[in-house]
Amino acid sequence: MLLIIKKIYKSILSEKTRIKLHYIRFSIRGYFYSGSKVTCVCCNKSFTKFLPYGKVKRENAACPSCNTLERNRVLYLYLRDKTNFFHDQLAVLHFAPENRLEKIFRKMKNLHYISGDINPQVAMKQVDIQSIDFPDNHFDVIICSHVLGHVPDEVKALSELRRVIKPDGSVIIMTKIYNDISATLEGSELSNAEDQEIFRKHGKDFHESLQRGGFDVSIIDVAEEVGNAAAVKYGLGEKELIFLCKRKVKS
Ligand SMILES: [Zn+2]
Questions:
Q1: CA 62 to centroid of ligand 1, rounded, Å
Q2: Domain 69-247 class?
Q3: Alpha carbon distance 69, 51 (integer Å)
Q4: If you measure from the C-alpha of residue 67 to the centroid of ligand 1, how many angstroms do you get, rounded to a whole number?
Q5: Which tens digits make up the pLDDT trace of 77-103?
């Protein structure tokens, strides 16, 4: 019965509408967790706790109201406190936009902001990261969080990111790093059923792939930088690293 209702729901409403309804549900949920113990920097509200999230549930992960995760809050704090993102005039391309962050960035008058995804239902423009439909040297900032594990050809994707970023621009990359893997696994090296949704598991050598793609890479650990008390208060998780990529100057 539940399956039939779900099917009817899916056939009547577009994916965009369903996502909107999803987030209305979250904002109602937020009222039940109002408090002062933790604060979500993305919706600027405080709660008794962050909620568990994930196939294997992580504690203190999802904001009760806007449903942002640790990595989204890390990215927001980094952009707000450590970059010119909130005040300079910037051309921005945001891949696989997180709902809450996209909402905030679209309203920012200083940004010429475009979100892109292979699925046009979840972004402003359909964009394939392996063949980005923009001219060379076009963007000041590209945000690419938790995308590269899901892309068939990562080398091509990095080459395209390098092509469309301005020489002094910043490509901000995040991904799930499997700390028990020293070298990234892909293709036939992925054997588990749970791996079927992804093309690779990034290991501790991830930054080397970015360097081979033509970038100088700085690895930023925002949780470590703000200290343990703030990291807990803002629900920043552990080892949600930012890989800040700048175009290497060809010698
Ligand atoms: Zn929130």
A1: 8
A2: alpha beta
A3: 9
A4: 6
A5: 999 999 999 999 999 999 999 999 999
